[in-house]
Request: fold
Amino acid sequence: MAQNYIVSIDMGGTKILGALLNSKSGIIATTKKPTEKKIGKSHYAEALYNTVQKLVEIAEIKQEQIKAICLGVPGSVNPRTGIIGLAPNLNIKNYNIKKDLQKFTKIPVLIENDVNLGALGVHNFGNSKGKKNVLVVFVGTGIGGGIIIDGKLYRGTSMTAGEIGHMIVQPEGPQCGCGQFGCFEAIASRTAMVRDLIPKLKKKKRGYLVKTFRKSGQIKSRTLAAALDKGDSDTVKIVDKSCDVIGQVLASINNLMNFEMIVLGGGVMEAMGGYMLPKVKEAFGKYTLKDPAKHVRIVESRLGDEAAIYGGLALAEEFLGIKV
Ligand SMILES: [Zn+2]
Reply:
């Protein structure tokens, strides 16, 4: 019998990443295309539908074999109505994407915040499978989190729960993209680390980072990882500070929530997890209450950037009762 699938689409600020998958075979086809600048709301649905068609073509399946289309949106969404409240990176505000996409296809459309979707993926197909109370944290350009309570994703009163990156840890600290000062992600994300590193680079004449920065004008996670490997003292100092703050925030949240497991993912952890995880654990131990610390394990996500793609399977089961 022909297998059934879902399509999971990650709507990033720079690219639309689509995947065809089911829980039996995993991901069987992917497609990637850049997000067109000034694409405008009305063209989004069409671009997404093209992604679905392309996956059908690549995998040589029938469209009827797709049972749901799950969209991961970098912003506030309402999975029940299909409305994107605000997605600054996509330049979208108050838009019912589900309604528009449904004009092209009868396949049910679901939407979810991309970080929540990542947490669902980690929880159902990654490290914390079968655990009840879990915190999933992604450290990358920003810092995002998903909270699992009693085996279910906690979305909060108006679906905005999990904004761990905007917990204020230093009110006198640097300004965050959200407008506040001293948010967790304004201190410990890759963006924050690079911001602190650049003035130091400008004072230096040579070295690996100086060369890379001059050439490309940017510093990615893997550049930071390479500088760490080479023992660059500024990088070591800045990454260590980030680890300390991450441990501190995780300890505070765990004191409040008493989790079984905390899973760390995202570009920064993927690139430097080997160095950072022990440091984060050390800081966690320094700041935590004794009892909750005994019952929580802090681990690195093993799903990588496919977490949100897999989260689509859990979303389809939660909202449509579909298991593929
Ligand atoms: Zn903030």
Notes: The chain has two domains: 5-114+306-320, 127-302. The chain is about 40% helix and 25% strand. The chain has a mean pLDDT of 93.
